[in-house]
Amino acid sequence: MSLVVSRSKRAAVISAVTALVAGVGVTYGMMSDAEAIPPAKKSCAFNALENSAANGWRAVSGSWVTVNNGASGRYVVVNFNADAGVDSSAEIRVGYRMDSGSVQTPGAQNFANHTEFWQTRHSMVVMWVPSGTHAIQPYWRISGATGKNGVIASRCLTAEAYTS
Questions:
Q1: Which of these, 21, 29, 68, 101, is most buried using a 10 Å CB contact count?
Q2: Are strands 90-98 and 110-113 parallel, antiparallel or unpaired?
Q3: Could you tell me which of 119, 96, 99 has the C-alpha nearest to residue 109?
């Protein structure tokens, strides 16, 4: 038994298969490596920063990220971690500043209490970031009596506005 296919049907099938293969090829070719956190939304620094209770809020220098929400605002997950040490009877507090606004404390603030040795600490907060492009920077202060000091080092900051 032989199968006879008209020239027009064969041309239609070949065109459909060619379009499918081309579509898959274009889709595969346009895909880039998956990256959970784009470069502008991550920042790491490895020098040590010192602060004292008398200074109040200070910027965590070398750590800031840019978030572009386009035409709509959304909640952004901000993660900050660092190796930290602080004097006894003192705490390190963490807040976040967006653009040139005031320091916000949208989540847990107590970043570190005194321990015998430094420890890696982590803060995760959820911040409302309006539409457009905004810079987010962590700030820190020492909560304690005058003369109490703290140090942070080897720190990273990330911000994720949405995932797919």
A1: 68
A2: antiparallel
A3: 96
Model pLDDT for residues 35-82, shown as the tens digit of each residue: 455 656 788 999 999 999 999 999 998 888 998 888 989 899 999 999
Which residues lie across from 66 on neighbouring strands? 135
Is residue 156 scored above 90 in pLDDT?
yes
SS (H, E, C) 45-111: ECCCEEEEHHHCCEECCCCCEEEECCCCCEEEEEEEEEEEEECCCEEEEEEEEECCCCEECCCCCEE
Sign of CA dihedral 35, 36, 42, 44: negative
Question: Which residue has tokens 């570190």?
Answer: 112
| Closest C-alpha among 90, 95, 113 to residue 105 | 95
CB 95 within 8 A of CB 143: no
Element (H, E) at 22: helix 7-30
Tell which residue, 130, 122, 45, 134, has the closest CA to residue 97: 134
Residues in CB range of 78: below 8 A, 6 or more apart: 65, 96, 124, 125, 126, 127, 136, 138, 157, 158, 159
Question: How remote is the C-alpha of 108 from its chain's centroid?
Answer: 17
**Which helix or strand (DSSP H or E) is residue 151 part of?**
strand 149-160
